[in-house]
Design a protein that fits this description.
By secondary structure, this protein is α/β, with parallel strands linked by helices. The chain has two domains: about 280 residues, Aldehyde Dehydrogenase, Chain A, domain 1 (3-Layer(aba) Sandwich), CATH 3.40.605.10; about 190 residues, Aldehyde Dehydrogenase, Chain A, domain 2. It is built from 15 helices and 23 strands. The strands form seven sheets. Strands 14-17-18-13-12-20-21 form a seven-stranded mixed beta sheet, with helices on both faces. Helix 4 runs antiparallel to helix 7 and helix 5 packs parallel to helix 6. The longest helix is centred in the N-terminal third of the chain and has 23 residues. It is globular and about 75 Å long. The mean pLDDT is about 100. The site of nicotinamide-adenine-dinucleotide has 32 residues, from helix 8 and helix 9. Nicotinamide-adenine-dinucleotide (NAD) binds next to helix 8 and helix 9.
């Protein structure tokens, strides 16, 4: 792919003709109500497009179509190898449109174009290919029954899957849901965040072009309390997969109980500890990883290492390295390929982050870098990496998910104290450990209540490893073959044999 310059990206952006329609039953369409809402570019506050504001009526229609297509077997009864080929074609079409997708993602939610192009979009394409490739290689089981019985334990597609996703990695989080769900034979309704609907809308036509039968993949843009709630309360959605905040995740579980007990799988928030021990192999490397592990994607990352736990004896040496590493992560125009940090997704989120910064100051922590909005002349929502030192783990900025570029530095004196602090959180999504001591790393990793633990790295792992949290970080796992469990029901078929 040719690499575009800043000017070329700006040119491309100015020529865009953005589609803001819903995609229902194989057609782009307005919301039934005819209502729209504005999609704002967080880099300048300008309106990019009017988006179809779907509500419960659109949900009713899309769900009935999804149910019909599922029951017809037009996709669900295809052989795994046939579904594989279609999804591979889908991935190839995504690849052909990678530049366009990267541009939409960057304009829509403010992340640097180099990251959309080199991380988000290729990772989403890889995810579609991965599940396509996997689906015709999975075998079912035969149980160890008595001699006069044969029992098959099989997995079959669950039916209508609704996927409600957030705005921080819009297409990538979407792909982690729709790729395994489609591969398993389900009909899928994707509901992107109202803050970042553009790539979800764009890919719908590619899915159909790839050969996914009409109605198997639909996209409903709109607000959470309108489209999301209606999907969650639907009697005909069989499985609801969600990535987003813990608050909304809990609500979805209630909606399931109030309706048809649909399976609800939640990937929610985090406040992940990144623990640097005094015997860390390379302090500079750990400092750089700590900075990127917290501030990547403007800090809008569920697994961001927002609590830096540092062993007291190396703190004086470590802190200047950490602050220096932040110099490489400074806000700039997201369309500039040299930019390493983009804009916060919208003014609401920016104000929320600034509010937490005020609370940190009020509760007695000290800012050692950042802390203020920048680049205001652009009309956009920019904020540099902000580090609070002298944080107590009981403080609000150490307990609540801020979801912006704010790090809380907490010191400890030994491994036992580090573990206690790390686990003192309602969340349990991820954790990092930096040490040269193999024994210690294993013991600490085992003691941490987190879904992913990274030793001497932060946020590593490709599609082969599961991703998800303990405690109030959710109950689901995305990625890897484990993710497929969510999109299938387990069936036992037992045959009684005639014994001679
Ligand atoms: P959010 O919970 O506000 O919204 C997520 C989605 O839910 C959006 O599509 C939204 O429209 C929808 N929604 C909102 N209210 C709803 C309702 N009442 N009923 C149904 N749907 C509703 O989260 P967000 O601000 O978009 O994303 C940030 C959150 O996502 C953070 O908490 C972050 O940690 C989390 N996240 C988690 C993971 C993970 O894998 N664990 C990954 C990325 C983001």
């Amino acid at each position: 792919m040719t690499l575009l310059t800043y000017l070329q990206w700006q040119q491309k952006a100015s020529e865009l003709n953005i589609n803001g329609n819903a995609y229902i039953n194989g057609e782009y369409t307005q919301a039934i109500s005819g209502l729209t809402f504005k999609c704002i570019n967080p880099a300048n506050g300008e309106c990019l497009a009017e988006i179809a504001r779907c509500n419960k009526d659109d949900v009713k229609l899309a769900v009935s179509i999804a149910k019909q297509t599922f029951e017809s077997g037009v996709w669900s009864s295809q052989t795994p190898v046939a579904r594989k080929k279609t999804l591979q074609k889908f991935a190839a079409l995504l690849q052909e449109n990678a530049q366009q997708l990267a541009l939409l993602e960057t304009l829509d939610m403010g992340k640097p174009i180099s990251e959309s192009l080199n991380v988000d979009i290729p990772s989403a394409i890889n995810c579609v290919n991965w599940y396509a490739e996997a689906i015709d290689k999975i075998y079912d089981e035969v149980a160890p029954t008595p001699e006069d019985q044969v029992a098959f334990i099989t997995r079959e597609a669950i039916g209508v899957v609704a996927a409600i996703v957030p705005w921080n990695f819009p297409l990538l989080m979407g792909s982690w849901k729709f790729a395994p769900a489609l591969a398993a034979g389900n009909s899928v309704i994707l509901k992107p965040s109202e803050k970042s609907p553009l790539t979800a809308i764009f890919i719908a036509q590619l899915a159909e072009q790839a050969g996914l039968p009409q109605g198997v993949f639909q996209v409903l843009p709109g607000f959470g309390h309108e489209v999301g709630e209606a999907l969650a309360l639907s009697e005909d959605v069989d499985c609801l997969v969600f990535t987003g905040s813990t608050t909304v995740g809990k609500r979805l579980m209630e909606y399931s109980g109030q309706s048809n007990m649909k399976r609800v799988w939640v990937e929610a928030g985090g406040k992940s500890p990144n623990i640097v021990f005094a015997d860390c192999i390379d302090l500079k490397k750990a400092a750089e990883a700590a900075a990127w592990g917290c501030f990547y994607n403007q800090g809008e990352v569920c697994v961001a290492g927002t609590r830096l736990l540092i062993e007291e004896s190396i703190k004086a040496e470590f802190m200047p390295l950490l602050v220096a590493a932040c110099q490489d992560i400074q806000p700039g125009d997201p369309l500039d390929p040299a930019t390493s940090m983009g804009a916060i997704v919208d003014d609401h989120q920016l104000n929320q982050v600034l509010h937490y910064i005020d609370i940190g100051n009020e509760q007695g922590a000290n800012i050692i870098t950042g802390g203020q909005q920048s680049m205001q002349q652009t009309g956009g929502y920019f904020l540099a990496p902000t580090i609070f030192d002298n944080v107590d783990n009981k403080m609000c900025i150490a307990q609540e998910e801020i979801f912006g570029p704010v790090m809380a530095v907490i010191s400890f004196t030994d491994a036992a104290q580090a573990i206690t602090i790390a686990n003192d959180s309602k969340f349990g999504l991820a954790a990092g450990i930096w040490t040269a001591d193999l024994n210690k790393s294993h013991k600490v990793a085992k003691a941490l209540r987190a879904g992913s633990v990274w030793i001497n790295n932060y946020n590593g792992g490709d599609m082969t490893v599961p991703f998800g949290g303990f405690k109030q970080s959710g109950n689901a796992r995305d990625k890897s073959l484990h993710a497929l469990d969510k999109y299938t029901e387990l069936k036992t078929t037992l045959i009684q044999l005639e014994v001679e």
